[in-house]
Amino acid sequence: MNTKLIGFDSTKSNLLASYQNNKLPHAILILGKKGIGKATFARDFAMQITKSNSDILVVEKEAEKREIGVEKIRNIKDFVNQTSAFSEDKFIIIDSACELTRSAANSLLKILEEPRPNNFIVLVAHNLHRVLPTIRSRCRIVRISDLSHEDFVKIVKNDADFLAEICDNSPATALSLGADLSRFYALFLRSILNQKISEELLKKVADKNYSSQITEKSCEFFFSRLMKFFCGVEPKFFFEEEKVFLTLKQKLSAEKIFKICDESLLLLNKTQSLHLDKKLTLINIFNHFVND
Fold it and tell me: DSSP assignment, residue 130?
């Protein structure tokens, strides 16, 4: 949950060297154990090159679905036809290639067969046998080693640090809400960077069985840390906080940030006491940070 991914240093160095020498293939398949950060690494690598989330398209399944449908792959064509925002390059990240339907895989294959200049497709996979052989053959396969015990401990320590802060050192809260708090916070930060609110996040909030504590704690935690950052207090960053905070600092004044945070806190409290629409509340809070 820190801003530096653990276990990917050599992979990143090798891929950046390939890019700088104009030898980065148009299709890369990142293969490794599930849950070690492959998709996050792919996003970070693409961001380091493009310097813009607008030039990165992440293709992933909807929260309630088990596979990535063909319509998601068709969106790639619209994306590559758009004028680049900042970079000459565009990245399409498929998370994951193991979850493509047969139609989606065939549609992706056609795109891979006709590579476009300055377009790079990065596929993430945890099981090579679930990726079409014809797709595999058109990609450079980059194998990510399993995490060492030391790296695993570092990651778990980061996780514990985050939960300790957001749960006010309450073990009971961390054990009951920890996974949901981590996921919500990561998705909220990613949404601000993408300037588009996560569908998964909206579905979670709209679910009547989803605890309102998760939204409240995550948002309050974000507001508090953001305001401290604007006051010159630089904390240990979790997830993509540093990128989000710096992005907001470039476009908004401290006075504006404090006003947005205060108004958002009032809206959260009002939503809880008057039983207002939680999904609409989250959208309004998100829009304050993205559109103001």
Answer: G
